[in-house]
């Protein structure tokens, strides 16, 4: 009598790039499903993205005692993230070292949870495995608040930021509406979005059919027309008494240069942004004489788990689980993507995207989502955006603040 | 047989100064109790603070059909607020005009819902009524996110901002904690507070006994010691990998001047602040070389009804109701105040303060609330602050955003 023994390979999971309020929901989906479907294998989570692998810092998740469900309520990256660009494929030394590290742990599945740059990293790993003959399935898990990944209808992480922006803009608008008679008449909220205006566009969701809370949206998809903008703000104040502006950090001037650029750049050569709101606010005060207030949401918007969208959470879990299914099917160089089936009612399913169509691509707002004057979002755009912010999933609180308890993490002993 | 007829006088209610996420809860408490206790009288709400009275724009609340309970969930000032300084008492013409306007509407109760400046306004009205012989009870209702009113233990509006700041700082801290290995190492959150550091101090509430999320707090009560601060931030990054700083807009330099002053001033002569966070962040990057992110919460913090403290809401309602009780007792020149009975368990009651002890006074953080190095809040301070952010009271959502429906408002026909 003979037995055939199939030995299940272990898995590597890492979080990469800017984190979101629901990236740990993807971690939850992925880890819990891997533990179930690959019950005899182990899964290692890398500390600080791929850097953990290179520095021998991997969390052994078989040792974790606290419930994985903790991950469902915790913003940020539970295992740490990184901004790290992999070298080109001709760097044989680097990739041989990488695969030796994976081989030592009998790792056959490489899960990389991130955005455009991370899809590029994952694709490089998939290609390098082919090139250097290492048996590895490299699968990306989508995550980015920017919502700018190609192929997928939307990106986990975005819906929660959109909900934060729409809610915050509505709240601030009610505030300035009370004050505008004798005081502040203009409020500028700066939000993230380097090249794509998805986040700024979500300011439109503050508005209802009966009432306008956000009057202007400044998108990177439109070169900033100062005169038209100022005339519009003046008209808002004249009509409503005040004007609320949601502005994307990536706004460009007439030459296509960042309107509020700074000198610093990150390891991918991206400029570090911030400071657009005070610039726009000063412009308005200087030119029109209106008292202004402004806010820069920055990290607050992308870490605000207390107001995450439950649709977003559901999808973040789903892509994590789907990555494990793709691994089981032996796929590599792919990413689970969200496919929209209908707007009303909102229905979606998970499908598969090819990383070569996704890596380093950026999806900007389609033309039909932007109003003719360039400062608002059309009905088509609203129909696309609205379902993504739907549903509340408040975290547990203790002593007045969300608990946000991580799982216990244990570095693999070397 | 003889009948004695007591004719109940009408009431005037106005919201004044910077609004909060719960000022409408005080309006709810006050209006609902007045309607109940003074059932034959009417209450008028002034459009845009006292300006509505001077411009004949008063809402006749007897015509309101929608439930007053709507006010419990709506941030901003439901009736509009103002920044408007009353003239001195020797301006007989102004006050005679004011009292004629009140007299025409048979108003015997003047309720003014605001902070320090509004207490001053209310006190002037009380004194002027005495001086010019007008039968009017002028009662202030406390409201200020700054928590700097004298006599009262705390101010309605503050607890909700404190909850917002503690929650947001914790969330952003989890974000930067994920990123600090290869990217951002310093996060600066700028919060409100001109002269008193109560709001910045609430950043301390992000911390737990086991974990530090906020490492430095910059208070207006301490002159900014650049060298000590930078050394502290360097130590944080060296120990934890990152540093989170909550900074009060009112931070002063060694000469006692605002560290980030702008030139604009409001009608009370206060400087318009903002822009401290980028200044602190740049200082750190320039001196220590750490990549930074920064956020300016501005109006978002004080309008964030979606994360209001239920203790704060309860107290905001209570001071509104208490103002009506004081009116019924015939008091004038007073304000209902919150009196703390114990910290653990937190118990409080409403008491009465004299406006002459409150108007234009500012209560700063007591010395025993500030740590020795000046950058943290002591256990005593935490014991004071913690109960104020306790409890959640999420608003109703529709289509992914809070509804925030106002009551219907009908201007009195002239």
Task: Provide the domain count of chain A.
Answer: 2
Number of strand segments of chain A: 13
The averaged pLDDT of chain A comes out at 95
Distance between the termini of chain A: 39 Å
Question: What distinguishing features does this structure have?
Answer:
homodimer, alpha/beta, Rossmann fold, 5-stranded mixed beta sheet, 13 strands, 33% helix, 16% strand, elongated
Describe this protein's structure.
The structure is a homodimer of 414-residue chains. In chain A, helix 3 packs across helix 4. The first copy, chain A, folds into 2 domains: 10-143 and 307-360 and 395-401, Rossmann fold (3-Layer(aba) Sandwich), CATH 3.40.50.450; 158-305, Rossmann fold (3-Layer(aba) Sandwich). In chain A, the strands form 4 sheets. Chain A has a 5-stranded mixed beta sheet with strand order 3-2-1-4-5, with helices on both faces. A 4-stranded parallel beta sheet of chain A has the order 7-8-6-9, sandwiched between helices. Chain A has a two-stranded antiparallel sheet with strand order 10-11. In chain A, 33% of the residues lie in helices and 16% in strands. Chain A is elongated, with a radius of gyration of 23 Å. Chain A is α/β, with parallel strands linked by helices. The two termini of chain A are 39 Å apart. At the A-B interface, helix 5, helix 8, strand 9, helix 9 and strand 13 of A face helix 5, helix 8, strand 9, helix 9 and strand 13 of B.
């Amino acid at each position: 009598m003979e037995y055939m023994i199939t030995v299940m390979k272990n898995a590597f999971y890492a979080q990469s790039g800017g984190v979101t309020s629901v990236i740990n929901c993807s971690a939850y989906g992925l880890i819990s499903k891997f533990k179930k479907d690959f019950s005899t294998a182990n899964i290692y989570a890398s500390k600080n993205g791929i850097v953990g692998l290179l520095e021998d810092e991997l969390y052994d998740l078989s040792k974790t005692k606290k419930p994985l469900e903790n991950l469902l309520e915790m913003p940020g990256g539970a295992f740490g993230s990184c901004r790290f660009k992999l070298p080109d494929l001709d760097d044989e030394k680097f990739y041989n070292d990488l695969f030796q590290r994976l081989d030592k742990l009998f790792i056959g599945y490489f899960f990389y949870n991130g955005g455009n740059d991370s899809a590029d990293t994952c694709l490089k790993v998939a290609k390098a495995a082919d090139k250097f003959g290492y048996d590895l399935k490299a699968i990306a898990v989508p995550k980015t608040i920017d919502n700018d990944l190609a192929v997928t209808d939307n990106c986990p992480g975005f819906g929660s930021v959109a909900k934060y922006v729409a809610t915050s803009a509505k709240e601030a608008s009610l505030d300035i509406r009370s004050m505008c008679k004798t005081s502040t008449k203009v409020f500028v909220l700066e939000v993230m979005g380097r090249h794509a205006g998805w986040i700024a566009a979500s300011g439109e969701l503050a508005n209802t059919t009966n009432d306008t809370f956000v009057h202007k949206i400044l998108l990177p998809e439109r070169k900033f027309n100062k005169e038209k903008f100022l005339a519009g703000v003046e008209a808002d104040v004249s009509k409503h008494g005040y004007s609320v502006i949601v502005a994307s950090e990536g706004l460009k001037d007439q030459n296509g240069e960042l309107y509020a650029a700074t000198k610093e750049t990150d390891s991918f050569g991206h400029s570090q942004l911030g400071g657009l709101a005070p610039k726009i606010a000063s412009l308005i005060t200087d030119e029109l004489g209106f008292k202004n207030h402004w806010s820069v949401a920055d990290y607050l918007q992308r870490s605000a788990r207390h107001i995450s969208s439950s649709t977003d959470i559901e999808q973040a879990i789903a892509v994590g689980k789907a990555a494990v299914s793709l691994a089981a099917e032996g796929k590599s160089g792919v990413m689970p993507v969200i496919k929209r089936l209908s707007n009303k009612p909102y229905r979606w399913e998970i499908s598969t995207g090819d990383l070569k169509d996704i890596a380093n691509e950026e999806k900007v707002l389609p033309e039909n989502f932007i109003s003719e004057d360039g400062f608002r979002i059309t009905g088509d755009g609203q129909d696309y955006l609205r379902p993504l912010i739907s549903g509340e999933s408040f975290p547990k609180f203790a002593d007045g603040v969300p608990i946000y308890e991580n799982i216990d993490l244990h570095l693999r002993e070397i």
